[in-house]
Design goal:
Blueprint: E1 2-7, H1 17-31, E2 35-40, E3 55-57, H2 69-79, E4 85-89, H3 90-102, E5 108-113, H4 132-149, E6 158-161, H5 164-173, E7 180-182, E8 200-205, H6 214-221, E9 228-233, H7 239-245, E10 250-254, H8 258-267, E11 270-273, H9 283-289, E12 295-298, H10 302-307, E13 311-314, H11 319-330, H12 333-346, H13 352-365
Parallel strand pairs: 1-2, 1-4, 2-3, 4-5, 5-6, 6-7, 8-9, 8-11, 9-10, 11-12, 12-13
Helix pairs in contact: 2-3, 6-11
Amino acid sequence: MKIKYLTTKLNLIKGGGANHAIDLMVRSLMQNGHEVKMITAFSKSNAFENLPYLVLEENMASSHPRKNIPEIVAILKKYEEDTDVYILDAHFFMWGAAFYKKTGGKSKVIAYIFSFLESMNLFSEAGRPMNFTRKVGLFIQRLWEIFIAKKNLKFIDWFIYQSPVNILPFKKFGLPNEKSTMICPFVEVHPEAGSPNVEFRLLFVGRFVLYKGVETLVRAMKLLPKEIKLDLVGDGEEEANLRKIADDRVTFHGFKNRNELGVFYKNASLLVHPTLDPEPFGLTIVEGMNFGLPSISSEGSGSAWVSGESGLTFKAGDAKDLSSKILMIYNDPALQKSLREKAIERVKYFDYKNWLPKLEEVLKKI
């Protein structure tokens, strides 16, 4: 089958885990005998080398979800004669793909939903500035989605959700239940017991942006015993602010590539994912569980679902509640041991080899 994966960019150098999950999906489909190519819509942000598949680089002018529909349709039309199925990042390309199908597009379309629509948050975007102009813009976008664009979604051939956390809001929105499947992001799983330091070390891995909630974690440190240390791995616009409020128990390690992360997961006692936004998944949680690393995540988040019984949850944005959950684990070696054992078992569920057959089933259905 000739498959094209349409995404915004492919950055395998400094990009987040989603870039690597997409890359692994493409490679896996190729190993199963499919002819797969990737299309990147904003190719100036690409960064990769030595790929076994071709990347078709496009440069769309607009990132606006209504204004870019003609550009998306043009890209899908451009490659349809050489494409049986498009798999696309649904939150960005879904509306254009639906119009492409409605107007006679020949190729099948699978919408892979791994995020939320911006308008679903409307007037309360956690950790993101929400001024009057943005409120009006999101309100207009929501009206357009509900009363104009949503009816076209019936033309899309299949929907894939990456976790139960993003299934519910989209089904409430009205996506068709009868043609949807849950398939987790593709990650390689290799469970092995970590060897944490004698010191109790907390770990955060990710971007330093408001909605990631790193400030909550840094403030929680002020409520914890001096014996507890914190390693922050990443960079971003909030770093200067975080450095101002952090004490000398917090170490900023900067950005690390995937090959360098293993040592941090191995040496950590507890991974903290304090996002203010629910986020539908938590790839860093899976990476940590590979080393038997337990976690604490925000209530109701994808990370909390990913960790399952191998982690605890706290109220998003509440440094006091977060510190109490950290202390619960810190003061209970038996709980630490139990959570580590559960992490090693839980991570096996997310092995991409469990999800590749489900993707093949979808390809056969459509």
